[in-house]
Write a structure and sequence with these properties.
The protein has two domains: about 90 residues, Uncharacterised protein YqeY/AIM41, N-terminal domain (Hypothetical Protein Yqey, Chain: A, domain1, Orthogonal Bundle), CATH 1.10.1510.10; about 50 residues, Arc Repressor Mutant, subunit A, CATH 1.10.10. About 75% of the residues lie in helices and about 0% in strands. The protein is built from seven helices and no strands. Helix 1 runs antiparallel to helix 2, helix 3 packs antiparallel against helix 4 and helix 6 crosses helix 7. The radius of gyration is 18 Å and the shape is globular.
């Protein structure tokens, strides 16, 4: 079952079970996917975005909510921070499990070896390799500095 189908199935279940908060988040996911579909159609794509792009969308949505939750906490709006965290839980159901530190380090070493990277100039190739294999499984914002230190 594709990610798109999983989200739609979860949406129908949430409707049947009258889970308002979950339903709201699932609708946000669907809207983000449809926005990306429309953008793809405008660029000559015909059948919408695939699972890799959906994983990217979901990853972005999680990151946005983490930043919002942090901002709400700093502003003393704990109820809004909790709402954001609740949305993160729903979105993460559709993401693959995150790699732990050791797995991420091993993946980085394998990517460096795979592309034959020898210096910091090859960082783009390494990141491209990692993104093609581990989208949704690692935070590329924190992976960048690790790749730099391994190449540098």
């Amino acid at each position: 079952m594709s990610l798109r189908e999983e989200v739609n199935a979860a949406l129908k279940t949430a409707m049947r079970n009258k889970e308002a908060a979950r339903l709201s988040t699932l609708r946000l996911i669907n809207a983000a996917i449809k926005d990306k579909d429309i953008a793809a159609r405008g660029n000559g794509g015909d059948d919408g975005v695939g699972d890799d792009e959906i994983l990217g969308i979901l990853g972005k949505m999680v990151k946005q909510r983490q930043e919002s939750a942090r901002a709400y906490e700093e502003g003393g709006r704990l109820e809004l921070a909790e709402k954001e965290r609740g949305e993160i839980v729903v979105i993460e159901e559709f993401l693959p499990t995150q790699l732990n530190e050791d797995e991420a380090a091993a993946a980085i070493r394998a990517a460096i070896e795979s592309v034959g990277a020898s210096s910091i100039r090859d960082m783009g190739k390494v990141m491209g390799e990692l993104k093609s294999k581990y989208t949704g499984q690692m935070d590329f914002g924190s992976v960048g500095p690790k790749v730099k230190s391994m190449l540098g």
